[in-house]
Design brief:
- The protein is of the alpha+beta class and about 300 residues long.
- The chain has 2 domains: about 1-240, no CATH class; about 270-305.
- About 55% of the residues lie in helices and about 15% in strands.
- The chain is built from 8 helices and 7 strands, in the order E-E-E-H-H-E-E-E-E-H-H-H-H-H-H.
- The protein has helices at about 35-40, 45-50, 100-110, 120-130, 135-155, 165-190, 205-265, 280-300; strands spanning about 1-5, 10-15, 25-30, 55-60, 65-70, 80-90, 95.
- It has a 7-stranded mixed beta sheet with strand order 2-1-3-7-6-5-4, with helices on both faces.
- Strand 6 (about 80-90) and strand 7 (about 95) form a beta hairpin.
- Helix 6 (about 165-190) packs antiparallel against helix 7 and helix 7 packs antiparallel against helix 8.
- The longest helix is centred in the last third of the chain and has 65 residues, at about 205-265.
- About 25% of the residues are buried.
């Protein structure tokens, strides 16, 4: 059963009893709006395309504006959850949804108890748009906390830190960024539309909502920059660790290189009378230790390790 707004209140209504879509303010599922398709007041193909595209959309056809309104999943807030199609005429506003659990939850929040929604087309539209960003501020704060914890992990224990956690945060912020950018484009199109949804009495609320979207987008851009800095810090720290390892290997190689040279040059090419000398082993060991110690002292003096 669809909901219709008449005489200052919402009530359930069978759209089969309504002959036209003119002067109609209602909320209905895709199937419930079948009568309006038959009367050619709204275009069924445009509505299905509007609901199918998982993005904010705006299209003008004949005398109707088709506005696609997107809702993110309320649990994760980083995946698409629901799509509404708003059909707006000169004196009509028809909100069509796909009758999912999330859609019904949004409708139940929008119409029965909230008296401030029952004030006309403009306020109804703004109230619906405000519900698209419910919980977003809290989600931004949660992401910011995750980034701060990730940054702190670099300074303490890097064993549980990896690029996969950074990529997850970047993906979440990318979803939010696209969401707000698309919403801004649609809000601009609505203001320029022939049948402007927003009357003068509610223009202030509409402007406040637009500014809120701008602030949310700026906040997301700041968080994206924060994540980028953390990622660069992670990469820099990883490079430093690799450099330390390579420097250690280099030092070890250089320390034992003189000994290898002596063995290869002297031992493989010349006669060694030390074979018959009782102090030959202590002498070779002493020379080796002296070479190693001198090499280490040289490296320490030059602060190579």
């Amino acid at each position: 059963m669809a909901y219709i707004h008449a005489k200052g209140e919402w009530r359930k209504f069978d759209l089969k009893n309504h002959n036209t879509g003119e002067n109609l303010v209602c909320i209905a599922s895709l199937d419930e709006a079948e009568t309006l398709y038959k009367n050619d007041f709204i275009d069924k193909t445009s509505i299905r395309q509007c609901l199918r595209r998982k993005a904010f959309t705006f299209e003008h056809l004949n005398i109707i504006d088709y506005i696609g309104v997107l809702f993110l999943d309320r649990e994760s807030l980083n995946t698409v959850g629901e799509k509404f199609c708003i059909c707006s005429g000169s004196k009509s506003l028809i909100i069509i949804h796909e009758n999912t659990d999330l859609a019904n939850m949004i409708i139940n929040e929008l119409i029965p108890e909230q008296a401030d929604v029952q004030t006309g087309i403009s306020k109804l539209f703004i109230s619906l748009m405000e519900k698209t960003i419910i919980g977003h501020i809290e989600q931004h704060e949660q992401i910011e906390d995750e980034i701060a914890l990730l940054e702190n992990a670099f300074l303490t224990d890097r064993s549980n830190v990896g690029p996969d956690r950074i990529l997850v945060l970047q993906k979440k912020l990318l979803v939010f960024k696209r969401f707000y950018e698309q919403l801004q484009y649609v809000l601009d199109d609505i203001q320029e539309a022939k049948y402007n949804l927003i009357d003068e009495d509610n223009m202030r609320l509409y402007t406040l909502f637009t500014r809120r979207i701008e602030r949310l987008l700026r906040n997301v851009l700041v968080l994206r920059e924060y994540v980028t800095q953390v990622r660069e810090s992670y990469e820099a720290e990883t490079d430093i660790s690799l450099n330390r390892i390579m420097r250690l290997f280099t030092v070890v190689t250089v320390i034992f290189m003189p000994l290898t040279l002596i063995v290869g040059w002297y031992g493989m090419n010349l006669k060694m009378p030390e074979y018959k000398w009782i102090w030959s082993y202590p002498l070779v060991i002493s020379i080796s230790l002296i070479v190693v110690v001198l090499t280490i002292v040289f490296f320490k003096k030059n602060k190579w390790f």
